[in-house]
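Hi team, as promised in this morning's meeting, here are the two structures we talked about. I've kept the exact order from the run log so nobody has to guess. The first one is mostly here for context; it's the second one we should focus on when we meet again. Sequence first, then the predicted structure tokens.
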Amino acid sequence: MQPGYAAALCVLAVLGLEAAAPGECELTRLLQDKLHYEMRLQYMKHYFPIDYTVQVQYEEVLRPSNISRLRNATVSEVALRYLWFHVSSQAMLRIREVLPEKHPSWKYTQELCQLFDALGEEYSKYRQTDVEAVVADLVKLVHSAGAESRRKAVRPKALLDNCLKVMRMLYGAPCRWETT
């Protein structure tokens, strides 16, 4: 390992920002480009009926305030990124479920799902036992579509807005993204 690289990892560890894998950074950069405001507006708002909502589980809405609360509870950055991936990919599937193949947003959501699938390859090496119990429990709730779960009506664009905001919070510093 090069001395400069080791020093950078030490600095990140001291700051509490566990380094993201290069593959994660590249894929989330591509995802950030796909989630550009104009694209979200066009595909998730303009191509849907006015006030259209998707029914999602309460736990499938991950906002920056949730991340801040979990950070204050000393949940690791790796665990938070793991949670973000599961919540965001599940939200993307919820949006995809309501679209017919001929819908103008179909191709856009397909491209986003492919990026999430590629990111899933990066996260496949993580096990729920490797992350904090609170995060593992949330991931289990997200993937259980039981009748006992609370439902919430959310606009498709709002789901992707939250996805992007949280992604920038979690990956901006470790991946050295420029804030735009």
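And here is the second protein, the one for discussion:
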Amino acid sequence: MIDEGLGLEQGYFTNTSEVQLLSSNYYPPCADPSLTLGLSPHFDTSLISLVYQGGSTGLQFIKDGQWINVGAIPNAFVVNIGNQLEIISNRKLKSVQHRVVTSTHATRLSIATFVNPSLDCIVEPAKVLVSELEPSLYVGSQYKDYVQRTNAFGAYTAAILNAMR
């Protein structure tokens, strides 16, 4: 449906959404949340991320310099646009910086799945979204080069790249 919403042919993402990573996260309560951060501010390098947070809060996104809490709706998913989808859409869809903060009284459990391109996939703005009036805002590159160049997963970048091979 995203492909059609962007005006791309149906199935456009079939070859660019080949790798799926799963992450489960446990954030215990902290008496003084200012002493720790559950997950540092970051952008997802994926095409799209789906996060199940159960009834726990703590996920925040930044807007106009302010961190805003994402509500926790039981049995619902949070959908994040990732950097690769921002590139393919030529910034018609935007990746959002987000983080997780801890709570003084509640444990946070979340499960996230990240849909990624294959490592050899060339990620670039879709040709039909680029014109003289709307030039390409990005230079295409292989996903693995993007991940390495941006150190996308911090200290875990090499391990995650190896797991995706």
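Starting points for discussion:
Helices lie at 2-5, 83-88, 143-150, 157-164.
The chain is about 15% helix and 30% strand.
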